[in-house]
Design the sequence.
């Protein structure tokens, strides 16, 4: 009887630990999804910031070119020197836009790596809790068998004495 009670207690403990382990898995993946959601939100914000910077750069470029052309026209200057000044404004603006884009690409790459890291962190959280193993039925059978053998011995010894 004690073997059966021990096995039932082991089964109950196994079920409780299994539920804790399953909850840890659920919590770990929920945490990873939340982290990825935050990273996605940041990525969208960075993308919007890039679009705003690129638009502002285009507006500033157009204003600078117009200012150069108006100043040249007011001074009665025309020709290759004005064209070179306008082209220089365009080159500087294009370089600025290219730098903004490269910075955004590096930030996007960093965020992608952070998203991948959330999966690793979730797996580490899951693996940090050992998965419970079911109690063996062999232990129960051995306990019952042992009890039967012991009972048979005491039964036999009681007959031997008479």
Sequence:
């Amino acid at each position: 009887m004690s073997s059966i009670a021990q096995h039932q207690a082991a089964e109950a403990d196994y079920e409780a630990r299994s539920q804790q382990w399953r909850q840890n898995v659920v919590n770990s993946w929920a945490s990873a999804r939340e982290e990825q959601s935050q990273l996605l939100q940041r990525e969208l914000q960075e993308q919007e910031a890039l679009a705003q910077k690129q638009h502002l750069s285009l507006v500033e470029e157009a204003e600078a070119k117009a200012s150069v052309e108006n100043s040249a026209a007011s001074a009665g200057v025309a020709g290759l020197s004005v064209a070179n000044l306008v082209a220089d404004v365009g080159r500087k603006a294009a370089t600025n836009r290219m730098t903004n884009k490269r910075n955004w690409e590096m930030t996007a790459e960093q965020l992608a790596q952070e998203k991948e890291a959330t999966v690793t962190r979730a797996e580490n959280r899951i693996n940090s809790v050992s998965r419970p193993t079911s109690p063996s039925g062999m232990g129960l059978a051995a306990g019952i068998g042992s009890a039967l053998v012991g009972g048979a011995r005491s039964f036999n010894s009681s007959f031997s004495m008479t």
